[in-house]
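Help needed: design a sequence for this.
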């Protein structure tokens, strides 16, 4: 069990592994009272010193939830055939997951502004990264800075062995035989 968890953890892309680790460590640090949430919040004074502008327009001090919903939105759009189950109550396709989470937040009485912001940012990212470049005359507007590609792109590493990309629900149409036809035996 521990070995498979470690293998799964090490097979995550570096940025995903870093973000996941940071979320877990930050949560533990807050829960164990090593830091308070107000020591790690979004500080509007830093907007003018370091040009931080995401939360300025929506008056949010904690952006982690919006970022998580954004990641859920992008994942759900890239995996449209994955079947989801919400607490055993309802089944749906993955693209509906952000909306189900938004409805659940609403039922719990939480503000949906954070979820809506995450969905909006996720949609813009998905459109600019996956949809627009595939259109006639489209191009990739979002490009990874070269220094990040240099640091994190491990294609030249002979030990790098990424998992094959899986799209659950996909089918290998055309790789079989004609229905009713006997297989050829050579």
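Sure. Designed sequence:
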């Amino acid at each position: 069990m521990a070995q498979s968890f470690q293998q799964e953890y090490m097979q995550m892309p570096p940025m995903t592994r870093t973000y996941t680790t940071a979320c877990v460590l930050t949560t533990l640090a807050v829960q164990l009272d090593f830091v308070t949430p107000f020591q790690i919040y979004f500080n509007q004074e830093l907007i003018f010193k370091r040009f931080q502008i995401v939360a300025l327009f929506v008056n949010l001090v904690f952006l982690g939830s919006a970022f998580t919903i954004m990641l859920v939105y992008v994942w759900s759009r890239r995996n449209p055939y994955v079947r989801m189950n919400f607490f055993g109550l309802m089944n749906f396709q993955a693209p509906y997951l952000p909306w189900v989470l938004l409805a659940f937040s609403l039922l719990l009485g939480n503000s949906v502004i954070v979820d809506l912001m995450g969905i909006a940012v996720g949609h813009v990212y998905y459109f600019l990264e996956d949809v627009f470049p595939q259109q006639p005359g489209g191009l990739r507007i979002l490009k990874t800075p070269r220094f990040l590609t240099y640091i994190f792109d491990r294609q030249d590493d002979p030990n790098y062995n990424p998992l094959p990309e899986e799209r659950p629900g996909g089918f290998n149409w055309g790789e079989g035989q004609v229905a009713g036809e006997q297989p050829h035996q050579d």
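The helical segments are 2-10, 14-31, 45-50, 64-78, 97-107, 113-131, 146-152.
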